[in-house]
Amino acid sequence: MTIIQAIILGVVEGITEFLPISSTGHMILVSKLFGIGDSDFTKSFEIIIQFGAILAVVVLYWNKLFSKRDTWKKVLTAFLPTAIIGFLLYTTLKRYLLSNSIIVIWALFLGGIALIAFELWYKGKSFAVAQDDDAGISYKKSFAIGVAQALSIIPGVSRSGATIIAGLLMGISREAIVEFSFLLAIPTMSVATGYDLLKSAGSFSFDQFYLLVLGFIISFIVAMLSIKWFIGYIKNHSFISFGIYRIIVALVFYILIFQFKM
Hints:
Elements: H1 3-16, H2 23-34, H3 40-48, H4 50-60, H5 62-67, H6 69-88, H7 90-95, H8 101-123, H9 139-149, H10 159-169, H11 174-200, H12 206-234, H13 240-259
Helix pairs in contact: 1-2, 1-12, 2-8, 3-11, 4-11, 4-12, 6-9, 6-11, 8-13, 9-10, 10-11
């Protein structure tokens, strides 16, 4: 992996982490396009730089994080299912799923169709929408959101997309579930990063650590901008455009990777 490639992957991560389009899926496909090998370092890089994007949430939501103890309890409740499933399937995830481009492409494609179908269905339904903060998210709903997030262990299945759709189905407002999804990313990616470093850090060279730090910083800066844009976007738009985008990306990468053998 070169410095330029690390920067580009950091930008990709920062843009896509909180949008319902799968940051992990994008990084896997972009890495494949660049011809970056499926080494343990590459897989760790894709996991660890996500923590840079998560740090952007900590900075932007600092006051909310440390002023409401109940918020943290709900976030940790939602994190529990992901923690258990992620721990049990860590080896399978890193050895098989994080290097499988065809799984990513299919997940992006089918997820795009599901996102469009959901929005069209949801538009015609009437839900008792909870208030626009986490006070409208019960512990029971928090746990259910966490179960939905666990689906994102499959690369290409968006973590934010799964949690947001689950929240909307339970009558939570878009603003409230999107913010909750942001906060839920903090323990999820912090633990994933820490666990991966514990397992793999000893095998990294100095140059590889430099690339990790570079990707981390770039993803943090870009994620700050992406979060602010997304919060403004959801107030007046549905997620249909993201569904269309997922389908287009899946088709484009299928052609580039499998038809042209890149």
